[in-house]
Amino acid sequence: MYLIGSIESIFYTITIIIILLILGEFVNLIFKIILKNNEDCGFFTNFPQALYLGSSFIVILYYTLFYLSIKLSSLLIKTIFVISFLILTFIIILKYKEVYLFFRKIRTYINFDNLILFIFLIINFILRFFPYKDKYVYSGYDIKLYSIVATRINEEGLITLSWGLYDNNWSIAADSHLIFSGASMIAVFLSNILDIKIPQIYSLQTLTFNSLIPIAIYFLIKGVFKKKGLAFLTMFIFSILSPYPYFFIQWGGIGETIGWYFLANMILLSFNFIENGRKMNLFSIFIGLLALPLVHPLVYVYYFIFLILLLTVNFKSNRKKYALYLLILLLLSFILLLPYLLKGYIELKKIENEIKPGTLGWSGFEETIVNLNDISKTIIYSLLFIFIPIFTYIIANEFKNKILIFTVWIFILVFLNINNPFSLIHVQFPFWYFFIPVRVIIFLCFPISIILSFLSYKIFIVSTSHIKIKIILIIIGLVLACELIYYNLYATIETVEWGNSLTINDLYSFEWIKKNINKEEIIMGTIADSTFWIPSYINRRVFCIPQIVNNFTIISEYKIIESKLINGSIEVKELILFLKKYNISYIFFGERVEYDLPRYKLNILLDMKIDGQKIFQILYKKGNVLILKINEKNYQLKL
Description:
By secondary structure, the chain is mainly α. The protein is built from 26 helices and seven strands. The longest helix has about 35 residues, at about 320-355.
């Protein structure tokens, strides 16, 4: 078992990138064969796009085999990868029969710009991985849930809408994380090739894509605006403004991380296709249109909005034909995904009928910047997301149409952000409650980075007037940038520690549970510690994981018992009846808590007695990890 910030994890991270590159170049090669394209193939396409194609290929593979009822076993996964690698190698050997030709081609990529990119990437990786130098998994709650989803896919060998063993008739419908499980598919695929536990491969995968998003944005801006200086500036500003990995550590964003990476590549491909009409770009966009909805539906919506704006701007130009092709492709991808999306829609409606929309995930946003009732916040909000984009559009000159697309895109996203129960605006369109304001405002750093970079580029680099004022403003900007970088790093280190409960003693206890507790038996624990890692590490049942237990009656009943266990007011009879009702045999206490969350009072449980006989016995103890077993005799008592 290795630490995420260790040398071993660096090796695995590089291996992950190589695996996805090989798959991406294999997909690229297939496209070129189909289109009879004689351009270079094999390790020589755009680096971010190769990773994007490789990741998308895995998602589409799972989706296709789901409808063919073919299971992706570990052996089949490894076979697919080996075949891809061998075919790609064979093509490279055929194309570059002389070794020196191969190395000559590679040498063309060794230049100053790529050196800067490489250094930036290394720094990015260090900043992302350093906080995890003594951690076994990525921090936060969502990684636990996503790992269980990946575990289910691995168990079934297919996409599944069932929690299987982990749902003891506790749920009324498939959770959205099961429906939109593209990120989990990628994790399972990589886990089987590298033979690494799913939670750890998921952690490496998340941090890797976190680190690569700015690089993808560099290629996006360089491709769209054809200005390397602007591309470097945007990459830098995005890295400062982007909350990765700080905010997402606290509440999720695992699929969103990969979604952002896909989005940067798909926007570039869309612009390129509109401009040059290359079929290779069209094929690559189609791959993303099929994969992105399964990776993260909200990011798909963001891209859908962008694409409609792109098509609208170009529909009356001489590029109308290409815009029409993209529209047809969008409709075709939707039709191909429709059977699965309808299944997901039915499941989500079941939950909506049980739990009032806007109930889950909406607490705590009353005081955030999404509330237009706060005048000072509204002024800041308007300046950043309305006036600056408009001013940038005014001075855009030859790039007016492109800046217009990003500007209107921001306006629409702002509407989605302020459209909430705490605002003056609240339009309840279908599934409005998935657009939780904090998600949208975090995403706004993506397009606003582009606008701010373009504005800065025009004022400070293109314009030659007021040199002294520019120097002063640049110095101020650099000071603010250093402050933001320091704050992000400090906050990340603090949050990683605060939101990570898994320790080596927890892992030892998991192994003990695997050997001594049957799969059918149920363990109860809280979100406060490492309890919810148990299913994805050792395939054992745990009660009560909120997304798995989406039956509101059970959730309400558990919340009452949990509250009493935390404050120590639980009655013996009440607890025993509850444990009997849900067939719970064990209570788990992890080594440490995360987010300073409260958990059950251990001394109350240990002191509980019936007729002088203790209810719980300590079955396992290592460090601060405890496993309590309910006395079998007490289960038979007539209360």
